[in-house]
Specification:
The structure is a single chain. By secondary structure, the chain is an all-alpha fold. It has one domain (5-361). The protein has helices spanning 5-22, 28-31, 40-55, 63-98, 102-107, 109-113, 115-123, 134-155, 157-172, 175-186, 201-220, 226-247, 270-294, 297-304, 306-321, 333-361. α4 (63-98) runs parallel beside α15 and α14 (297-304) crosses α16. The relative contact order is 0.16.
C-alpha cells in the first residue's frame, strides 16, 4: 500500500489528542473523548491495523516473508516498551518515592511493593502499569496478525471475522475475569487482573481484526460503488450526531449514555464500538478532502513517526506527573503552559529526527 499522507495526518491528530489526554493539565477534560464516546486509542489501534493489513495484503502468499516482517515490527514495538518500562521503574519510580509524589506512587504501586516480581512480569507483558499498557496490546496483536492473515487466506475473511466477533462477545460476558480466576485456582500468577493493564485483549482484538481486514480489502479490491456508499455515509452521520449529543448531555439524547456498561472503553463495549465504526466511516470519506484543504504538515510529520513520537510523549507524561505535589494539587497555569510547550516541541524534534534518519537510510 503506497503511503497516504492523509492517514499520517489522522494518526498525528490522534497522537495530539492522546498526549493532551495523558498530560496532567486541564485540557485533558476536553481531549479524552471530543467526538463522542470514542477516544484516540480506538482510532490509533484501528488505523495501525488498517496499515498493517494494507501493507501485508499481498505477502500472505509468502508466509515466511509475512512472519519475518510482522515479527520484526512486533520486536521493535516491544523494544520501545521495555525502554519505557526501565525508564519508569528507575527514573520515575525513584522520583516518586524520594519526592513523595502520589501520582507516581499510585501509578507504580505494585512495583514499589514487589519490584522484582513487577520487573520480570512486565517483561512478559503480564504486569502493565497505567499509561504503559497500550504498547503491550500492540505487541500481542502484531504477533497474532500472521495467524489472522493466513487463516483468512485458507478459510476466508467471513469465518475469521465471525470467530473474532464471538471472542469479543465472550469478552463482554467476562472472559478475562473468568480466565484470571481459573488460572489463579490452577497455578501461581505473579499479578492480579487489576495490574494486567486496562485494555481487554479479548475485546480489542476484534477492532484490530476489523482494521486488518479493511486494510487488506482496500489494498486488494477497488472501492465500492459511490451511490451505494451514500446510504452508509448517511447512517454514519446520524449515529455520530446522536452519540455526540449524548456525550455532551444534550436532552433528550442523554438516554444513549444511561447504561455505562454499554459504553465501557476497556472492554470496547457495544455502543462504543458502534460509535467508533460510524466515525471511522466519516473519517474514511472525509480525511482526504480535509487533508487537501488544510495540508496539516505538522500532523503528517508526527503521524509518519508514530512509534518514536508515541514513546517520547509517554516519557514527558511520566515526567510531568512529578510536578504534582504531595497534596495532589493540579498544575498552575505557568506549569501547564511549560509542560505543553516542552512536550509538543520534543515530539516534533523526535519526528524531524526520524524523518532525517529515514531519508538517509532510504
Amino acid at each position: 500500500m503506497p503511503r497516504r499522507p492523509e492517514l499520517d495526518a489522522l494518526r498525528g491528530l490522534l497522537l495530539v489528542l492522546m498526549t493532551l489526554t495523558h498530560l496532567p493539565t486541564r485540557l485533558n477534560v476536553y481531549s479524552s473523548q471530543p467526538f463522542g464516546f470514542v477516544s484516540a486509542a480506538e482510532g490509533f489501534v484501528f488505523l495501525s491495523a488498517f496499515l498493517v493489513g494494507g501493507s501485508h495484503a499481498k505477502t500472505w502468499d509468502t508466509p515466511r516473508r509475512l512472519w519475518v516482517s510482522l515479527r520484526r515490527r512486533a520486536l521493535k514495538v516491544y523494544a520501545h516498551h521495555v525502554g519505557l518500562l526501565l525508564f519508569a521503574f528507575t527514573v520515575i519510580g525513584t522520583v516518586g518515592w524520594l519526592a513523595n509524589r502520589p501520582a507516581i506512587r499510585n501509578l507504580l504501586d505494585f512495583y514499589h511493593q514487589e519490584p522484582l516480581t513487577a520487573l520480570l512480569s512486565s517483561l512478559f507483558l503480564l504486569y502493565c502499569p497505567p499509561l504503559l499498557d497500550i504498547l503491550p496490546l500492540y505487541v500481542v496483536l502484531l504477533f497474532l496478525t500472521p495467524f489472522v492473515l493466513l487463516a483468512a487466506r485458507e478459510a476466508g475473511w467471513t469465518k475469521v471475522l465471525c470467530l473474532s466477533g464471538l471472542v469479543w462477545v465472550w469478552a463482554q460476558l467476562g472472559l478475562k475475569q473468568a480466565l484470571y480466576t481459573g488460572l489463579g485456582d490452577l497455578a501461581w500468577l505473579p499479578v492480579r487482573i487489576g495490574q494486567s493493564g486496562a485494555f481487554d485483549l479479548f475485546a480489542w482484538q476484534f477492532l484490530w481484526v476489523l482494521g486488518v481486514w479493511t486494510g487488506s480489502q482496500r489494498a486488494r479490491v477497488k472501492l465500492p460503488d459511490e451511490r451505494a456508499s451514500w446510504v452508509v455515509l448517511g447512517g454514519a452521520w446520524v449515529l455520530s450526531l446522536l452519540f455526540l449529543l449524548a456525550r455532551y448531555e444534550v436532552e433528550p439524547f442523554v438516554w444513549l449514555a444511561s447504561e455505562p456498561v454499554l459504553l465501557d472503553k476497556w472492554t470496547l463495549a457495544p455502543l462504543r464500538l458502534v460509535n467508533f465504526l460510524a466515525l471511522a466511516v466519516l473519517a474514511d470519506r472525509g480525511s482526504p478532502r480535509v487533508y487537501h484543504w488544510l495540508k496539516p504538515r505538522m500532523l503528517v510529520l508526527l503521524g509518519s513517526a508514530s512509534l518514536p513520537v508515541f514513546s517520547v510523549h509517554l516519557v514527558l507524561c511520566l515526567l510531568s506527573l512529578a510536578l504534582i505535589n504531595e497534596n495532589e494539587t493540579p498544575l498552575d497555569s505557568l506549569e501547564e503552559f511549560a509542560v505543553l510547550v516542552v512536550t509538543f516541541a520534543s515530539m516534533l524534534l523526535v519526528a524531524l529526527h526520524h524523518r532525517r534518519r529515514a531519508a538517509l537510510t532510504g
